[in-house]
Amino acid sequence: MSASAFRPRAVLAVLALLAALSAAGLARPAAVHAAAPTPQYALTFDDEFNGTAVDTSVWNHRTDVRGNSAQRAENVSESGGAMHIALKAESYNGKSFTGGGLVSKAKFRYGYYETRMRLNTGPGWHSAFWSTCGAGHDIFSDCKPRPSEIDGFEIDSASPRDIRMNAYGTTTSTTGNYDMGFDSSAGWHTYGYDYEETGVSQYIDGVLTRTIPFSAADNVQDWVNLWLTTIAFNNTPDPAQLPATVDWDYVRYYQQAYYVDNDGPTQTGYSESGPGWATSSLPGFAHSTSRYSCSPGTRASWTFTPTVGGTYRIDTWNIVDQANPPDIAYRVSPAEAGPHTVAGRSGTTGWVTLGTDRLPAGTTQTVTATGSGTGCLRADSVRFVRVA
Questions:
Q1: pTM beyond 0.85
Q2: Residue among 75, 79, 103 at smallest CA distance from 89
Q3: Which residues contact 325 (CB under 8 A, 6 or more apart)?
Q4: Three-state SS for 313?
């Protein structure tokens, strides 16, 4: 998807003005609603941090011990239209410093993630806006094997002009450290990352700055939790510059493609009928599991109810194998479009488009694949991509 024209110029001008005012102490964080990479992205999760306490129905606290600090729930607060992570010189849980952070209870995958934040002053602290598995206690024990990790940004307070973005899986990609052109502790700035099946793109103050490859063909791409955290790491903090805070104005997640799969958080939209269903040795999309049945009359169904109306392209992940039927019939309802015939034995494994459909918000759409009785019906994932 195109990354051009990511922000209207007027919005960029407002953001720049508000950042300057805030840095001068003349304005509190402004709730300027950002735009996603294209209009087809829809805001599906956000916290504007406008309350008086963290919403614990949405967030867990980061409470692990890592690097030079122990993380405490008490260090995270919400006031004045922002979330604040307090950084302290105090003895706790075997460490001499404490930090903190928030970890979303919900899991996300592809889409555009954005926050607006102001870094602390003073060395020794590592702030990150990132996605990986876990409840915040310890990612290395909470999540086995280690899941995908997308670091939208990592900034060390010892070098407040430098930033990096990373993607970890079977392969690893990174931007490496590079100079943003400003001191991130001197004012408010907007940071975003667009996570797609092929890679991750980084935006700073609405401008595309870096893109790194990270493909579903080479990596497991998990559903992961969203993290906003600051810990003592890489350098030793200076107690003379503590206490300090890292301030976060908001966090937002925009989505264009919606997946229904036989495994993972979206499996509630997947169902099977007929006998003989089992987990296949053939991998599904992004190296997830797939399912199959060789019994006549079996069906697999994927159901999606959009919260945002629009025109959606409907794709199915077709696993090509010589044990499949030569043709697989797909039907899209309630419009009863089709049947669409997809080759089961020829071509290459990958996404196959079944067509497009106008879906009003709240209207349930179901895709059904039916076995022919000749060969094995294979089922994995269907995606609904908002195109207009």
A1: yes
A2: 75
A3: 344, 345, 371, 372, 373, 374, 375, 376, 377
A4: strand
